[in-house]
Each structure stands twice: as C-alpha cells, then as structure tokens.
Amino acid sequence: MPAASAALRSFAPTKPVLDGQVVLITGGTGSFGRRFVQRALAEQQPKKLIVFSRDELKQYEMQEALREQFDPAVLAKMRFFLGDVRDQSRLTLALRGADVVIHAAALKQVPAAEYNPSECIHTNVLGAENVVWASLNNRVQRVVALSTDKACNPINLYGATKLASDKTFVAANNLAGDIGTRFSVVRYGNVAGSRGSVAPLFERLAAKGAADLPITDPRMTRFWISLDQGVDFVLSSLEMMRGGEIFVPKIGSMTMPDVARALAPDLPHRTVGIRPGEKLHEMMISSDDARMTTELPDRYVIEPGFVEYTRRPFSEDGGQAVPDGFTYSSDTNTEWLDAAGLKALLAGHG
Length: 350
Hints:
The protein is 35% helix and 19% strand. By secondary structure, the chain is of the alpha/beta class. The chain has a single domain, classed as NAD(P)-binding Rossmann-like Domain (Rossmann fold), CATH 3.40.50. The strands form 4 sheets. A 10-stranded mixed beta sheet has the order 3-2-1-4-5-6-10-15-14-16, with helices on both faces. A 3-stranded mixed beta sheet has the order 7-9-11. Helix 1 packs across helix 9 and helix 10 crosses helix 11. The longest helix is centred in the middle third of the chain and has 21 residues.
C-alpha cells in the first residue's frame, strides 16, 4: 500500500461562478444541497437560489436553519419549490429563468434500490431525462449532474441507474443545437459526514458505548471526500466545463478497518459481510474509459466519446493522456488517508 497522504486537495474555483446567476439545485435539502446553499449565500452573489425538492418538512427545517445564519436581505434570494424530478411539467415550471442547474436529487441507498428497483429507475433515470428536457425547454446555460463512483462498472441497481443518468447528460449536449445548453457530470466517492455515510455511524456507535464496530469486510476500500471539497469540485467543474465531460477528483482512499480505527481506536471489529450489491473496492475510471481520459493537476476528465457540437478537448490545453490500461480504483489509488486526514474531512476541511 502507498504511504499515507492527507489528500485534502482544494478544488476551489478561481472566481465566483454563481455571481448574477439564477441557480436551481434539485434535491437541495440533502447533505450536499444544504452545504452548497450555505456556501453560495456566504461566498457568492447569485441573483436567485432555488431549492427544488419533494419533502416539505426538510424544506421547512432548512429555511429555519438558514434564518439563523443569514440576514433577511441575503435570504431574499432564496426560493423553495416543492416538486419531484419525476414530474417533468413541475420541473419545467421551476426552471423558468434559471441560468445554472445542479442536479443532486437521487435515490442513493444500495439495499433500498435492490429491493425497490422501479422506484430507483423512475427517480434516477427518468428524473435525469426530465432535468435534461426541462433545461433545454428553458434554455438553461449550464447543467452539472452529481454522479457516484458506483456508476463505473456497476454491479448494483443504484450504480446502473447513475450510469444511465451519466450517459443521458453526456449525450444531451448533442441535442442542444442552437439552444446552447451544456451538460457535464461530476463523479466522486463517499462524502465524509453525509447522511448514510459509515463514518457518522461508527461515531454514534462509539458514543453509545458499543462493544465493537461492524465491518463489512476487512479488505474493503473506499474513496473519501468532504462536503466542502464536493461543493468546491462542483463549482470549479461548473467554471471549466465544456459540455459532455465527466469530472473525477483526485481524492484519498481508506480501508474500512482504518476508518474504524481512526474513529474508535479502542473498539474491536466484527465482520458482518458485504451487503447485496456492494463492491469490495470502488472504481471511478475503468480501463475502457482510460482511452478517453485526460489528467489535469487536481482531477481526471473523461471526454465524451462522440461530439456533434463545438467543443475543445482538455487534451489540447495542457491535459495529459493517461496510460493505456489505466484505472482509478480505491484499492490501487496512490493517495491514502490517515486518521488525521479522515478527521479533517469529517470536520469539513479541504
């Protein structure tokens, strides 16, 4: 295994890319959406910031939290729309006048998707198509969709639906014509501290005095990124996007036993086995994708396979082609997190 690295790379954009823009984020009451909105209000000057989601309680709770953090003059930019990405007509109404769309809405729990496949397909695949059509109909300028490492060589339904979503957004650039809408995808790994992450679970179990921590498999590895890194990566990708690319950040890996030891060093581990649909290691770039992948200092860019619109590839602007057979996998990664690095991610640093 390579030597440990903090791997707390900054992905911050070079300028405030949301200034003067009408921005809509689907799934805006989730972990990413809440941090994105907080950062956008605190650091940039969007003309309007729209949260589009289907849970009225989460919207209410988010509004209350924002009232404690920001002045009324700042919050005057906020709009909250109840709606579901499955509903194309409602989505089309919500996107009127939008310049930028961040698509974060998805069903993400692997076991739930395995048990409820049609629900996952309707939200993650058909919902993605609805975002595309609503964006084209409203002449939105830029759309960035959030993906997952599970979309690369998927073995579970969640990953398969996100792969289909990625393909939908990449191909949508060829439909834009004189509308000019550009669609890109960001793909990254586990978000430290987000809802559903194993790190907060380990912390809760340790705080409650658990006798041990459940480890799916001692060989398991995962990519890790902080919420703030995720927000910065989306913003910087929004700044540099050309349409059709999948942006993949260079981030650190960690084994599950090391995660557990970092958060509860005194607790023993109990192997419980891999859940249905889980991988032992996650991959973000496969060897087949490598033929179209360009390396930049802080990220990889998977270029679109076919382009029927004006676009300059990153390989013509200083990007380096990755070697034949290259893969970007959590077990063969060259950057590894140590305990201090994981705790920094959980604190939102980076």
